[in-house]
Specification:
alpha/beta; six-stranded mixed β-sheet; 199 residues; two-stranded antiparallel ribbon; 8 strands; 6 helices
């Protein structure tokens, strides 16, 4: 035999009505559905650069993405993130890869234009990846750094239809007019391109 359920009390109904009348913006963030920003590359941690250090855009509709540019930070991983977050520095890259374990941080959305190449045309058409280390200290180019960077580059190439070759995956030193030498003579391009192609 079915029993009737008790009706909610008037007090409970009034509480619900009052809550529904509260503006969404006044609810606590966890209730309001505020979420941490997620990265374009799921394994990456979101570590946003200052908005003063890149140009907002709608790539690839505004500009075609057809290059990946490989950099070496000449700084530690943490210092590089701090530089990108400092609005006075006027520099950024889309990603930073840590030497010790290959951990990846994303600092600029792929749709936006990071200021990494030193050439506006190359900035508009590329994704910049910084690697923790120094060009004259090959010990920073660990297996983990190569592996995780190659996976990231392969994912970018797959996403935008970029060929996985040295014509489209460039060192910073190959950007016209640059005075940079990174990633330097200790970067193993043959190994890296092979890893990108097998990632």
């Amino acid at each position: 035999m079915d029993q009737e359920r008790p009706l909610p009390s008037r007090r409970l109904l009034l509480k619900g009505t009052a809550l529904a009348a509260v503006p969404y913006a006044l609810l606590p963030a966890t209730q309001a559905g505020a979420q941490a920003q997620t990265s374009d590359y799921p394994p990456a941690e979101w570590q946003p650069a200052s908005t003063s250090n890149y140009t907002a855009s709608t790539r690839p509709s505004a500009y075609r993405i057809d290059r990946v540019i490989i950099h070496v930070t000449q700084e530690t991983y943490n210092t590089t993130l701090s530089i990108f977050q400092n609005p006075a520095k006027q520099v950024s890259a889309h990603y930073v890869v840590r030497s010790a374990d290959g951990h990846v941080a994303q600092c600029v959305r792929e749709a936006d234009i990071a200021w990494h190449a030193g050439d506006w045309s190359y900035n508009t058409r590329s994704i910049g990846i910084e690697h923790e280390g120094w060009v004259d200290q090959p010990a920073y180019f660990t297996n983990a750094l190569y592996e995780q960077s190659a996976r990231l580059t392969a994912a970018i190439c797959n996403k935008y239809g970029i060929p996985k070759d040295r014509e489209h995956i460039l060192g910073h030193y190959q950007v016209p007019g640059t005075d940079h030498t990174d990633p330097g003579p200790n970067w193993d391009w043959v190994r890296y391109i092979r890893m990108v192609n097998f990632a």
